[in-house]
Amino acid sequence: MDPTAPISVGADADGTAPTSTTITLPPLTLRDVPRLPSALASSPAAPPPAAVPNPISRHPYFHPPATFYISPGDVSLRHAFFDLAAAAPSPLIAYRRAGPRGDLAVDPAAARAALVTCGGLCPGLNTVLRELVVGLQELYGVRHVFGVAAGYRGFYGADEDHVRLDPAAVDDWHKKGGTVLKTTRGGFDLGKIVDGIVARGYTQIYAIGGDGTMRGAVAIFQELKRRGLNISITGIPKTVDNDIGIIDRSFGFQTAVEIAQQAIDAAHVEAVSAVNGVGLVKLMGRSTGHIALHATLSSRDVDCCLIPEVDFYLEGKGGLFEFLYGRIKKKGHAVVVVAEGAGQELIPRTDDQKREQDESGNTVFLDVGPWLKSELGRWWKREHPNELFTVKYIDPTYMIRAVPANATDNLYCTLLAHSAIHGVMAGFTGFVPGPINGTYSYIPLEDVAVAKNPVNVNDHKWAWVRSVTNQPDFLKSQA
Amino acid sequence: MDPTAPISVGADADGTAPTSTTITLPPLTLRDVPRLPSALASSPAAPPPAAVPNPISRHPYFHPPATFYISPGDVSLRHAFFDLAAAAPSPLIAYRRAGPRGDLAVDPAAARAALVTCGGLCPGLNTVLRELVVGLQELYGVRHVFGVAAGYRGFYGADEDHVRLDPAAVDDWHKKGGTVLKTTRGGFDLGKIVDGIVARGYTQIYAIGGDGTMRGAVAIFQELKRRGLNISITGIPKTVDNDIGIIDRSFGFQTAVEIAQQAIDAAHVEAVSAVNGVGLVKLMGRSTGHIALHATLSSRDVDCCLIPEVDFYLEGKGGLFEFLYGRIKKKGHAVVVVAEGAGQELIPRTDDQKREQDESGNTVFLDVGPWLKSELGRWWKREHPNELFTVKYIDPTYMIRAVPANATDNLYCTLLAHSAIHGVMAGFTGFVPGPINGTYSYIPLEDVAVAKNPVNVNDHKWAWVRSVTNQPDFLKSQA
Amino acid sequence: MDPTAPISVGADADGTAPTSTTITLPPLTLRDVPRLPSALASSPAAPPPAAVPNPISRHPYFHPPATFYISPGDVSLRHAFFDLAAAAPSPLIAYRRAGPRGDLAVDPAAARAALVTCGGLCPGLNTVLRELVVGLQELYGVRHVFGVAAGYRGFYGADEDHVRLDPAAVDDWHKKGGTVLKTTRGGFDLGKIVDGIVARGYTQIYAIGGDGTMRGAVAIFQELKRRGLNISITGIPKTVDNDIGIIDRSFGFQTAVEIAQQAIDAAHVEAVSAVNGVGLVKLMGRSTGHIALHATLSSRDVDCCLIPEVDFYLEGKGGLFEFLYGRIKKKGHAVVVVAEGAGQELIPRTDDQKREQDESGNTVFLDVGPWLKSELGRWWKREHPNELFTVKYIDPTYMIRAVPANATDNLYCTLLAHSAIHGVMAGFTGFVPGPINGTYSYIPLEDVAVAKNPVNVNDHKWAWVRSVTNQPDFLKSQA
Amino acid sequence: MDPTAPISVGADADGTAPTSTTITLPPLTLRDVPRLPSALASSPAAPPPAAVPNPISRHPYFHPPATFYISPGDVSLRHAFFDLAAAAPSPLIAYRRAGPRGDLAVDPAAARAALVTCGGLCPGLNTVLRELVVGLQELYGVRHVFGVAAGYRGFYGADEDHVRLDPAAVDDWHKKGGTVLKTTRGGFDLGKIVDGIVARGYTQIYAIGGDGTMRGAVAIFQELKRRGLNISITGIPKTVDNDIGIIDRSFGFQTAVEIAQQAIDAAHVEAVSAVNGVGLVKLMGRSTGHIALHATLSSRDVDCCLIPEVDFYLEGKGGLFEFLYGRIKKKGHAVVVVAEGAGQELIPRTDDQKREQDESGNTVFLDVGPWLKSELGRWWKREHPNELFTVKYIDPTYMIRAVPANATDNLYCTLLAHSAIHGVMAGFTGFVPGPINGTYSYIPLEDVAVAKNPVNVNDHKWAWVRSVTNQPDFLKSQA
């Protein structure tokens, strides 16, 4: 962008009408997704492979208009806002827009799809499964759809781990929490998984899971490519914590924030009903504090929100204890929300605990909730031994993540599942579907597997939580 | 865009890795918003008016980093996706990004804000009011904030229609449905309103309402400008129907879709518990079918969704009766969701009804629900006199719109209110705050007052509802 | 009772300790229920018929203690309170206590049960069905259990109206509203029904329905007895209105009161958000106002509760309009709850409407809700033409009655179903199970079919609603 | 009862009609409640003290009929069912019926009421407080009503612990969980409390709390009597566990059972979504398993319900592990509900833990939930080391007890509060109001303070949970 031609603010001297200013944008870079071998021309000069017309066009009730199908040039922008005055703007990145293509690179009659869920529960899992089954069969006529039970290990499991699914079987799944396909952690054995995929003749894999699952999907994608197989793999990111980057948000997140209100309400009631009462709620979020932050903003009954992105300390000037004491003296009570991953460095850890890892290879988190509850009790007993004090601690994790998706998430899961199917049918593989600034798009699986989504505490949005809680920023240098 | 350099789809012959393609974008046009006279330089050559440093920087607990404030060049893009292959791309429109500015054009100590709500209820109204009060006082230190009761007519009403508000008074408003400031329709008398504003010394008006309210706000803006007054007016669009354009969605909409599920569930239960039962639910939506559409997609128990954007007919081949008969014979029951504005041209209307208008000047809608219920009963009695039949009709309108906002909408209302305040403090007027592709932005009030937001039934998204209901498209020519 | 020896109040001169006074009670009369011919001795001198030991005693996991089975002398009292000082106390009526008997008069291996639901929906219907199926099979080993679809007419319907049920099939029915067996009104043809029962070999009929269904069950009972058949019929009273006498309350009632709160909340929000706003809610209750009364008491936001048991009038001194005007002037708004059957005599009725009856033979009720809404509007326009006014009317009937039962009602439905089964297995017929002062009992079907349960407005309990609403008693003579 | 004249079962040879049998009942004993000195005649021969007419009779809107007031002979029966055939029937106990009396022994103008809440939270606490305030003022015109903060210690606390309450102040309390008057445990100092009562001139004490609070109220009652003071004390039993005897059930219990469903649902979803998953839910209930039992019956997703009244063991034949293994192998998962007080004798306890007591003098319970979770994990790892296994443990205690009362409990709290007031106004003291077989009655405080309410596991009702779970009875001798 030409820094010699910035937009000038308030250029209209009389402010009478909206004004228009024209700026030249930098070039745009398309970040494309891979394709199946069969979807590629054999050489740059070769003709494209024979395409199959999209069967939606033959739908008995529905007659798609010209604008119905996505064109090859349809892209979405990664960044929806810019600082035009900046001398060196961020490069503009684009992704392919998700949606149905007029011509398919995959023959629905020959397709055999496998769906698998891995990792912890998240509201909407069953809706995604339901919509993959319904979309594959009713939009495209894919008749062979299987649920693979018990996570990745199901691919090399027994026959009963491979369950044929059809629209009638999944009809009410969107009203159920959890996953009807059971889920597990770990069990990732690349060779056995790909052998299992091949042995059972699957041509489309839909892997629904968290960051570990996405990294596994990348490995499967690369192995499938190495073997030159016409089998696609799609990752559908599932993280109730909303800790996956690039996409706008993950499914189940809005539901989680909604249900978290119940826990905060209970903590607030317990706190206000006691003398010098503290209500303490631990919410999900190992690497990011999105649920804690959003639940705090929606509730407004929270006095302090502790998230992994902001270090805090307990004692001394500007510390948590000082802040809470002031709040209790002023209001008679206080409510604290702490994200799972906050304060990990403050909790004393044994050598064993330092070494431990969970089955997906994640560092084992110590439980910040009981630790903080205990520290609060010890602090008060030490500093204010003659005053009553109560801490009520609530860990609503399973009551949050096991509910069915709310209406907003149910709709989102539908669009996500359909976007995935459309992409697979177009011959894409190694990709993740997801909304980018509201536009459903296809993103390389490799990019999503490494993208993080921390709460940006330097942005003005963080001020929202501050305007709600007026909590300190725990910057010792300020103290 | 240079049509000689389109992106080529599948350019990577081996599909081994995500590829990058670079394209030149067309220029961008900034659609700016007006400013107060005091925020404008007296002439293009004059120095800018004396600015007030943002008091957030003096906040005792919070120390804004460099990235906290919005820069003059920060803009958002109206369209987040494009067809790069199109020969003549849409012009790229941008808006100013919402958020706090480092320098204010308004002195908080001299500010006197008035909040008013007009038109029908919508989940989140009280949250917007609460956050305007809290944001004005706690972020900016504005001490004079008033609620104006009973809509626009309150501006020229009695003293008791002007209620002083502070954070303590509004503390739990976000947990209440409706509006604590009472709302009315009509009563728009431009001269009296502006006279009232001036007489009471208000310097900032926040008008929350629907399209009629936005048109009224435009008139007030123009009159204020005509009189050369340093009084800003901001419109906060309230439409449970989601029928306002440019912005991503309106507040309360997600809550409405959530609660609508209860009505659809009840209609579904009534239908399946009867012999040849039909459950009929009327949902809000005079000019657009967004609630009906989203509720249908989230529920999946709906057999037919009728919206204003798609004409339908009752009798004959391809008509509603034929479709419902088939569905009842197949499943034993059917559920129909009809938006308020659907089928208006089918309902017989007396001459009086043709002339009538409501207080806001909207055409009076005939009630499609009882009419359709009656038509269904008459049809069945005529065509299938010896078979049992039941229609249960539910109109959940007030039970939907009177609830408090859910967590998602509560958060949205907060961001909307804070965005409005930041803009006013920066000296903007005649604008609407709202999210555009996820980025909160400022849009000229005049643009929003005329923007519509119909359901795009030619887009592939409409296929979602079709894949859920498999309903006919009521194109007679196809029949 | 000897009136010469009344208890003396405050007989203990120092009030230091609880005192005991002993009184002689009047004799007790047992109101017994009929038995199957096979359960009766052939003559007063003959030995009792061969009994079957209760199979619960052979349960692999459960070893019933001695106190587990109901003894032949176990009875419950109809009245749990008395005025001991009254010269002529009411006769004391007792009923057989419900529960398992040690010896059965019915061989479970030969039993063939039919379940049928009639009339309108009520929360808990599916729970009753589920527990009948589960209880019959798991407690008693009855293997032949059938659901009869579409109400009484299903007995002479097609084969597909007779659906075999087992515990797996009904597993989640308690989480569903409505009735999985479809329900209808009317279709009562005694000869065809009993012929159908005989033809299909049913030996136990469980009829779930309202007062019309109970009267039908009495007719079936008498016809079965006339034909000398060893077929039992049990009536399970279903009335969301709670208008059936003798029993403590009907299932689904607590759920209905709970959900009615949502409608009252919405009406309250609409009323307070308007200028001179009235929220009007119509609740179920044709002959009794129990739902309206309980919902009013639970909500406390109601200004006036109109029920069938209390006449009211609109105009003049002491009338509804005068009361509402006062309330609106004082509080700015008012909320009115009206039971379906209130004010029927006030609504103008055409000759046709005077003659009409519904399929169950009930008088057709005119819709008091829209009538009252319209009268309110006309009154205000006439009396206060220059003041704003709004009436928002909500009819939540189907949204209330179609929900699943809440926990309280779910448990109640279980006890009701099990009580029914235990009675049938003991050889009883022509009875209704139900709680009497908390004790599950067996009541002659004939008694229940004619018992009413009006709200006792002369009791001090009616004062509760009065203390909540302070509404007038519409006694014109007082005015 | 004359054993020579038992009722004969099936005396009617033809079973054609309900029969009547008449029996002589044993005498009835009235268990009276104490009165204030001022309500007692000075000697048996003296005339009764001057009575005040009930001000309800002067109510402007309401004209109580003759049957409105409770007569001196109105009593309720403690037992609503009997075994008439038993040779020695239980003595029949009666209590005074609650409700308004025509003549008061207390002058409302001189009354000064104090309300206090003690112990843990329970849904409905605030409703009881609200209705005491509203009932005292609106029914009786008592103008001096105070809330005493922080439990019994508030009586000798600072001035700000004594808050004047009126209907406007408490208007929306029934919609709030917890207690607006803060609650504490302990702090019971009899002398200081009674001195405080006298010093502040209170004439009526309403103490809302659990068994410790009731024992404290007995001591206060006795001290007030010893001092000869005309001050009444009423105990309103609050126990979310429903562990107080004589009365039908305690307030908040139905709400607790309702909310417990959410925790069981979540545990069930977690269990079915895992491979060999166990969902474990701990519910309130130290001495009784009512919540666990009712929640299990309402849910039907529970495989095993462990309550304090039934011992259980983990290992060996007939033990919990054996049962769960079978259930997991059969269904793939299991759900266990454990009451707080179950298995206390199984948990290893240190010497310190054996000695510890809480502030109310209750034995400190060890937390059965984490212990059982850990035992389950160790068992599986030991016995089935090569099979996946997951236990998800949920402790919803605070999320259950902190919610507002549901409609059923809200109504119950109203009747309880009004009953308390009517009794106090009639001159009673040292009593507890409560429903006995559905009739609100007055019970001596001393009786309630010692009454227990264990689940009767020998009654046929316990069979309900057995028919739902088919769990073993943990009788080792059977094994």
From TrEMBL, chains A, B, C, D:
NCBIfam families: PRK06830.1. It is found in: Cytoplasm. The keyword Nucleotide-binding applies. Allosterically activated by AMP. It comes from the Eukaryota. The active site is at D241. Keywords: Allosteric enzyme, ATP-binding, Cytoplasm, Glycolysis, Kinase, Magnesium, Metal-binding, Nucleotide-binding, Transferase. Its EC number is 2.7.1.11. One of its GO terms (molecular function) is ATP binding. Substrate binds at T239, V240, D241, M284, G285, R286, E340, Y398, M399, I400, R401. One of its GO terms (biological process) is fructose 6-phosphate metabolic process. Its cofactor is Mg(2+). PANTHER family: ATP-DEPENDENT 6-PHOSPHOFRUCTOKINASE 1. This is ATP-dependent 6-phosphofructokinase. It catalyses: beta-D-fructose 6-phosphate + ATP = beta-D-fructose 1,6-bisphosphate + ADP + H(+). GO terms for cellular component: cytoplasm. The record marks G212 as: Important for substrate specificity. It holds the Pfam family PFK. Pathway: Carbohydrate degradation; glycolysis; D-glyceraldehyde 3-phosphate and glycerone phosphate from D-glucose: step 3/4. Residues 16-25 have a biased composition (Low complexity). Catalyzes the phosphorylation of D-fructose 6-phosphate to fructose 1,6-bisphosphate by ATP, the first committing step of glycolysis. Residues 1-25 are annotated as: Disordered.
